Automatic annotation (TrEMBL):
InterPro entries: GNK2, GNK2_sf. It comes from the Eukaryota. Keywords: Repeat, Signal. It comes from Theobroma cacao. This is Cysteine-rich repeat secretory protein 55 isoform X2. Residues 28-131, 135-240 form the Gnk2-homologous domain.
Length: 259
């Protein structure tokens, strides 16, 4: 495993084995980030507010198109929290992912005031500092460091993902998936998503910054994922997202596994 760091960017190169054609049904813990300098005690007002916050995120997130943000507490104990599931994830899977991400936060970041947890299906973030509507440039990248792609596909892939990044901010929930036909090399699948607290303009900036990461760091890898505090991008040679059915009025969100 290799680590590259900068003022606001950390990249992790990890082995990701492509052993199946479709992996939409797999919800994986992709990483977490915890603060260390501003920990709190279990008896503090912050902990009480955190418990209340996580309860609200668990209850409300899956029922609001997979997205909910709120604030709990006052003054030094105030806490801001957000949960967002991918648009293609069902209400049930969103609820499961929310619980799993909270479990990771409480286990691995039990005393931290600033926490971010990335799962395949959802993203959890809470902090004692206001972050709603603020584009955060920090990111974490996962790539298949042993599986290289043909140069012609890499070139097409960059153009393809640039188009995905351009389209996503224009969508109702700032989420977009697409398929690239790479001819004899098969298909490539792309996804881009922004957290819904930021503006469409900042969504574009966020995704553009992740494209820079792809061009300068990831390069000719067949599969990669960039997770950020404000946006995420995925690119693989297998379908990793669900086929979705957008709900109308009060209907429940549904999805089907990829085929």
């Amino acid at each position: 495993m290799l680590y590259f760091s900068g003022p606001s960017f950390i990249i992790f190169l990890v082995l990701m084995l492509s052993i199946s054609i479709c992996r939409a049904d797999s919800n994986v813990n992709s990483g977490w980030q915890c603060s260390e300098a501003d920990n709190f005690t279990s008896e503090s007002s912050f902990r009480i507010n955190l418990d209340n916050l996580l309860s609200l995120l668990t209850e409300k997130g899956p029922l609001h198109n997979g997205y909910f943000k709120t604030t709990v507490g006052r003054s030094s104990g105030k806490i801001y929290g957000l949960i967002q599931c991918r648009e293609d994830v069902s209400t049930e899977n969103c609820a499961n992912c929310t619980r799993e991400s909270i479990a990771v936060a409480l286990h691995d970041c039990s005393k931290s005031r600033k926490v971010q947890v990335w799962f395949t299906w959802c993203f959890l973030r809470y902090s004692n500092e206001h972050f709603f509507g603020v584009w955060d440039q920090s990111s974490m990248a996962r790539v298949n460091d042993t599986n290289f792609d043909d140069a012609s596909v890499v070139s097409k892939g960059l153009i393809f993902m640039s188009e995905v990044a351009t389209t996503a901010p224009k969508q109702p929930l700032m989420f977009h998936t697409a398929v690239l036909d790479a001819g004899q090399f098969g298909k490539r699948y792309g996804m881009a998503q922004c957290t819904r607290d930021i503006s469409r303009t900042d969504c574009s900036k966020c995704l553009d910054s992740q494209l820079v990461t792809f061009r300068t760091t990831i390069g000719n890898k067949r599969g990669w994922e960039v997770y950020g505090s404000s946006c995420s991008m995925w690119y693989h040679d297998y379908q990793f997202y669900f086929n979705i059915s957008i709900p109308k009025n009060d209907e429940k969100f549904t999805n089907t596994s990829c085929t």
